[in-house]
Amino acid sequence: MKREETVCAKCNGRSCYPLIATEAPLPPLEDAPDFCPMRRFPSIMKKVAEEYAKPKIKEFARLASIQEAECYELTVSGLRTKIPRIEETVQFAKKCGYTRLGIAFCIGLKEEARMLTNIFEAKGFDVVSVNCKVGRVPKENIGLKGQEKIMGPDLMEPMCNPIAQAEILNAEHVDLAVLLGLCVGHDTLFLKYCQVPCTVLAVKDRVLGHNPLAALYLSRGPYYRRVAATEQISDRKAKISLD
């Protein structure tokens, strides 16, 4: 059955990643599945190529690709990785000439944020950090009822405030914002309002030690099988737009 949407995750081909000799011709796009975005959206691919042709974007992408390559090494036994993401972030920031880093972190990862700050400072960066509870805005202000709060109705519970985190890092004129453990949805708002280059160091997953992919790796076993279980959604809520 012909698919009418892009679904690269289900493609068995190698049209976009053929790993052929440098001078060899690329495989014809006709060999790619009908749902391949390179076939479905040629105008987008042309527009994107024009973006990469812009000097600043081209240089940023060039440095990012150099950084990618430096994370690996070819050995007689094959390809292997070399450095963890924290070091990768440091190296890339230096390649870009950044001197001032901003950390937007979950208050539950305060110790990790302190450790990260110390590492960045030891590498010569100025570091700004802002936690998710900045503003101390009660959750009732965004419409939560007492029983909907983590600690229940009897305690004042400040909302996570990713918009404030983003605007503060904007105002601090950081060169690069680093996300550390923001909740699902809160990270979305941060990314919407952040106006400086941004990268994600870690996402929140308290159950799996902030390693959410572990649920995928375990989803075929008996304990996390529920992750991959099929569900029928009968009561769809209205789609929320952030525009």
Keywords:
243 residues; two-stranded antiparallel sheet; alpha/beta; Rossmann fold; 2 domains; 8 helices
Give the structure's gist in a few sentences.
With 243 residues, the chain is an alpha/beta fold.
Report on this model:
The chain contains 8 helices and 6 strands, in the order αααββαβαβαβαβα. The protein is globular. The strands form 2 sheets. Strands 4-3-5-6 form a 4-stranded parallel β-sheet, with helices on both faces. The protein has 2 domains: 32-82, no CATH class; 85-228, Rossmann fold (3-Layer(aba) Sandwich), CATH 3.40.50. The protein has 243 residues and is α/β, with parallel strands linked by helices. 33% of the residues lie in helices and 12% in strands. Helix 7 links the parallel strand 5 (176-180) and strand 6. The model has no long low-confidence stretch (mean pLDDT 93).
Percentage of residues assigned to helices: 25-40%
**What gross morphology would you assign?**
globular
Return the CATH class of the largest domain. Alpha Beta
Mean of pLDDT: 93
Radius of gyration: 22 Å
Distance between the termini: 34 Å
Please outline the helices and strands.
Layout: H1 37-40, H2 42-52, H3 55-70, E1 72-75, E2 78-81, H4 85-95, E3 100-105, H5 110-122, E4 126-131, H6 162-171, E5 176-180, H7 186-193, E6 198-202, H8 213-218
